[in-house]
Amino acid sequence: MITGAIKSQIDHIWFYNVEADGWSLDDKRTPLLSEDKLGPVPATTLATDDHARNNLPDLLTRWQSL
How far apart are CA 46 and CA 51, in angstroms? Predict the structure, then answer.
């Protein structure tokens, strides 16, 4: 919740629902993609179906375009 003096200083709020970061959600945190497709700036371009397992590159691209 944003209240008080801070509320009057905010012009824009941006949200992105990150559903996957390339790693499993269990306690082992195993990679869901090959190492070259992990992280916010993967070495290899992600295929369309890879985006469901790693949202970070899309998040970074959209944030930088604001």
Answer: 7
Q: Is 50 within 8 Å of 33 (Cβ atoms)?
A: yes
Residue-range domain boundaries for the chain: 12-64
Q: How far is CA 59 from CA 1, 7, 53, in A?
A: 23, 25, 13
Q: What are phi and psi of 65, to 5 degrees?
A: -90, 0
Q: Give the predicted TM-score (pTM) of the model.
A: 0.79
C-alpha Rg value of the chain to the nearest Å: 16
The per-residue pLDDT for 9 is: 73
**Contact assessment for residue 49 and residue 14, using Cβ atoms and an 8 Å cutoff:** no
DSSP helix/strand/coil, 51: helix
